[in-house]
Amino acid sequence: MLRVPTLPPGLVALVSLLIFGLPPAQAASSATSTGYEEREDVRVFIDDLSRREGFDPADLSRLFATVQRQDGILKAIARPAEAKPWDEYREIFLTPTRIEGGARFYIEHRESLERASREYGVDPEVIVAIIGVETLYGTRTGKNRVLDALTTLGFDYEPRKMFFRKELEEFLLLSREESMDPPMVKGSYAGAMGIGQFIPSSYRAYAVDFDGDGKRDLWNPVDAIGSVANYFSRHGWRNGETVAVAASVTGDGHRKLVEKGTKPAIPSESLNKAGVVVEGVDLNGHKVSLLEYESSGDEKEFWVGFHNFYVITRYNRSQLYAMAVHQLSEEIARTVEASQKGEKE
Fold it and tell me: What is the C-alpha to C-alpha distance for residues 271 and 288, in angstroms, rounded to an integer?
């Protein structure tokens, strides 16, 4: 754990043990250094963070000496799953394994899910679907050291290096606040952590101690359930409201509506005028979005998105992701309901 005060020389070995789990000499030889601690941009980062947040610059330098650049992460971030066409993307997440696993997770954690729904006003199946899409219910939380991932992206990923550099700062602050050992924390290639995959800034802002043990532990299903619910509540989720409905289109008038994006800004009366038809749902008075999904062939799907669809995109901005979460949540709810009926019969 990183310590704030500057320590006398006699305690340097103890600090190294606290940070790395090894004495200084062993820590230095336990990994191949890529020299981040010697780079000018990293030194500026260390000095600035130490000045503003009270870290010991020497401690941070030793920490960055253990970082290893991850070229695989730089390759992975250049080809995200969200670049796939909808039919291929959907096949990743709408599987029997993920649906049945979601129903089991729901039943196992029903008490926590129902409490989260009451306290935060978020539908339980949506909480489960987020955890299912992110980590297959906690079975795939990531094997990358978060310190390596965020340092690599923060200093060697030019398109978004300032974003990831800020997340690196948030991670170091989080580690201090939650008594984490920075080199030991693992997560996704983008530095997301726990079974809900919160990036460090979201962890600090939205994670909650939902089981009351005094620690916000997002690898703990109970804390993760409460934290996902809190995130959605803070972003305006409306419990029980429609998320999205299928639509059909004729002509080309719909194009200008699709281009408006996922935020619900289209008056419902504009849909018919643009050749968009939705059946079985009363749209009067709602502002909506029009969503277009392209498959690997020439087929397209159109959906009308409501406020709650937009809220899902606050968790991940991809409309592919949001639709996968929505459809998975519906399948999980149906499976749980069928299971309950079977138990009663």
Answer: 9
Render pLDDT for 59-107 as a digit per residue (tens, 0 to 9): 999 999 999 999 999 999 988 777 789 999 999 999 999 999 999 999 9
* Strand bridging mode 276-277 / 244-249: antiparallel
Decide: pTM greater than 0.70: yes
- Alpha helices by DSSP H, listed for the chain, are 12-20, 24-29, 40-53, 57-64, 71-76, 86-93, 96-108, 110-120, 124-135, 146-156, 161-177, 200-206, 221-234, 255-258, 269-273, 307-315, 319-344
Residues in a beta bridge with 303: 246, 291
Sign of torsion over alpha carbons 23, 27, 29, 35: negative
The domain spans of the chain are 1-68
Distance CA 311, CA 317 (A): 9
In the block, tokens 């939380």 appear at 141
Q: Is 134 a catalytic residue?
A: yes
Residue from 91, 108, 134, 178 carrying the catalytic annotation: 134
Tell me how far CA of residue 197 lies from CA of 14, 156, 290, in angstroms.
Answer: 32, 22, 28
